[in-house]
Recover the amino acids of this structure.
């Protein structure tokens, strides 16, 4: 925890520098005007999905194995959404004016709706997670009013991904983003990356935290990751088919940049090759029952899934949308040291929150 | 209807009189005859401001329109492409109109520098996406910004299909070469772009770039007025707009 706090401190220092000099300290510029920050936000909206993949089977299908850990999912969502909001905040050129979004509400702007759904999701998960845990502590069943809120959280989780995808998918002239499959793709990759992280956290809690989520719960989650990852890979292949069979240059160029590189710019493409390998290996490990049931291999597959989808959404998706530029250039984007420090600081803040919330969770569970 | 012989003679006589007579007798020096500099009606509703650009008239290394615009609007020059802020830029024709370019097009045309600026779209995506209404559209079609409301989220930059918008990645004031005290500067962290010289239109003056162009390659006017210079020009020539297939209805017309 001290290490995390040190990272938060370093990130905060870098942020003060950014506040002073301006966003010029980042690698962003005229052509790639969104970078690492907005990409992290996009990826973490996905991680926030983990809750719904526990809540839905437990509350709608009475999948008892998840009963012990729905709160873990909700707390992970809370931390992820707080990271999302922080990443948007550090990306603003004039953070002092952030309240203008509320003072001049603009329903035609998807960013306005994203603010609404993200804050709503944060509130729902905080309240439901906390209330369920509190009643557990008292040894009582959760109060009746919390049930509708939990049901509401299911479509709400879908909405945060859909609205975030719409930020990109509704922009004319950015061919890479302008695709109806963007929202389904977001959902698929979210339902893989979130639960993958949750499995890793459960394995860590079992080994070091003195809390056992149960093999059945972990194995069900692993199957969810397998299905979601397979769907995610399938959706990417569908995109590739449409672009390269139709041979429309505007559709092919960004995908070529993403997977092979354009005009010597191969940084993103090399990362994506790694992501592709990791995703395929993880998928095999998750599908084959024997490897899925082996704990070390499952951990490996989940880490692989998480990293692969982080590269896809936390790096590739945002930058590639700006390629080529409206004037047909292939821009260069390399994150700078302050930008990376701030990014790591926000991640550390999120992990700090997760650690704190999970400690409370484990403490309560030990008492009962 | 084709002009009759009588019309032709009348026109020829008038033209000759204008050319021969000293300016004062021909109607005064302030009533300039060239259509692009005709006095403009004041800005307001019921108008649709538009610009016709004739890049073939441009001199190869001319920057008159850019310098004039950036001078009056205190546009900073950071001296590096990453932080670049501009209201008017120049790009080769082949990059501005990639769909209209092919291998048979002579290099002189493909490499022809074309002035590019905000298109003041009738259906502007930047206005739609702005979460604070800092970017908005006036009744006369001009897409303007409130630099005091912009939060610097840059959604508009992602939404603009023309790359017409610039972010102040750092404090622009030290990078303004010569301050024009009649126009505000911007602060660090806000987006800016061409405003079609709305501050000049309010005084009945045409945009600074139009006035500065030594070749009269830029023609500005009210598209709603059938007698305006821009309508007249667009009526006589075939013109292109950037990426019309996107449905943004750009109001900068290129005659190539």
């Amino acid at each position: 925890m001290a290490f995390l706090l040190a990272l938060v401190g370093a990130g905060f220092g870098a942020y003060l520098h950014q506040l002073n000099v301006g966003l010029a300290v980042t690698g962003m510029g005229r052509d790639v005007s969104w970078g690492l920050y907005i990409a992290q936000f996009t990826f973490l909206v996905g991680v926030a999905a983990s809750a719904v993949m526990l809540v839905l089977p437990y509350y709608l299908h009475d999948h008892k194995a998840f009963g012990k850990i729905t709160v873990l999912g909700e707390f992970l969502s809370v931390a992820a959404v707080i990271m999302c909001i922080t990443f948007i905040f550090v990306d603003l050129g004039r953070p002092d004016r952030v309240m203008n979004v509320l003072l001049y509400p603009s329903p035609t702007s998807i960013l306005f709706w994203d603010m609404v759904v993200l804050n709503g999701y944060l509130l729902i998960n905080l309240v439901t997670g906390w209330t369920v845990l509190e009643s557990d502590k008292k040894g009582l069943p959760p109060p009746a009013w919390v049930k509708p809120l939990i049901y509401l959280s299911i479509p709400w989780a879908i909405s945060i991904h859909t609205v975030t995808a719409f930020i990109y998918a509704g922009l004319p002239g950015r061919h890479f983003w302008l695709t109806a499959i963007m929202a389904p793709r977001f959902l698929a990759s979210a339902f893989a990356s979130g639960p993958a992280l949750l499995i890793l956290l459960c394995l860590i809690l079992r080994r070091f935290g003195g809390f056992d989520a149960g093999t059945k719960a972990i194995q069900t989650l692993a199957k969810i990751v397998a299905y979601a990852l397979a769907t995610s890979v399938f959706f990417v292949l569908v995109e590739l088919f449409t672009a390269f069979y139709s041979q429309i240059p505007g559709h092919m160029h960004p995908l070529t940049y993403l997977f092979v590189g354009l005009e010597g710019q191969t940084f993103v493409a090399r990362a994506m090759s790694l992501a592709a390998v990791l995703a395929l290996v993880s998928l095999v490990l998750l599908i084959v029952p024997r490897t899925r049931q082996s704990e070390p291999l499952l951990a490996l597959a989940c880490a692989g899934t998480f990293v692969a989808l982080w590269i896809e959404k936390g790096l590739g998706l945002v930058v590639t949308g700006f390629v080529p530029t409206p004037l047909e250039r292939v821009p260069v984007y390399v994150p700078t040291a302050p930008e990376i420090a701030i990014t790591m600081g926000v991640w550390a803040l999120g992990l700090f929150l997760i650690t704190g919330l999970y400690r409370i969770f484990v403490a309560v569970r030990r008492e009962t | 209807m084709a002009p009759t012989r009588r019309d032709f003679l009348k026109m020829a006589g008038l033209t000759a009189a204008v050319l021969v007579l000293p300016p004062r007798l021909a109607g005064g020096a302030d009533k300039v005859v060239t259509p692009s500099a005709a006095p403009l009606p004041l800005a307001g509703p019921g108008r649709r401001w538009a610009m016709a650009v004739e890049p073939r008239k441009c001199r190869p290394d001319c920057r008159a329109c850019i310098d004039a615009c950036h001078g009056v609007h205190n546009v900073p020059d950071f001296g590096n492409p990453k932080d670049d802020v501009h209201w008017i830029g120049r790009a080769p024709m082949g990059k501005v109109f990639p769909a209209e370019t092919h291998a048979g097009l002579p290099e002189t045309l493909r490499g022809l520098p074309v002035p590019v600026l905000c298109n003041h779209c009738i259906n502007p995506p930047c206005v739609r996406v702005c979460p604070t209404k800092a970017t908005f559209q006036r009744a006369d079609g001009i897409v303007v910004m409130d630099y005091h409301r912009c939060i610097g989220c840059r959604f508009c930059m992602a939404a603009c299909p023309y790359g017409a918008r610039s972010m102040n990645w750092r404090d622009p004031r030290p990078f303004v070469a010569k301050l024009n005290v009649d126009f505000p500067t911007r602060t660090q962290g806000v987006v800016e772009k061409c405003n079609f010289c709305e501050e000049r239109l309010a005084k009945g003056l045409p945009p600074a770039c139009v006035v500065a162009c030594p070749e009269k390659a830029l023609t500005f006017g009210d598209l709603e007025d059938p007698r305006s210079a821009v309508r007249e020009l667009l009526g006589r020539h075939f013109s292109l707009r950037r990426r019309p297939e996107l449905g943004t209805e750009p109001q900068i017309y290129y005659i190539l």
Summary: The interface with chain B takes residues 21-24, 26, 28-31, 33-34, 88, 91-95, 97-98, 100-101, 103-104, 106, 108-112, 115, 167-168, 170-174, 321-322, 325-329 of chain A (CB under 8 Å). Chain A has one domain: 2-367.
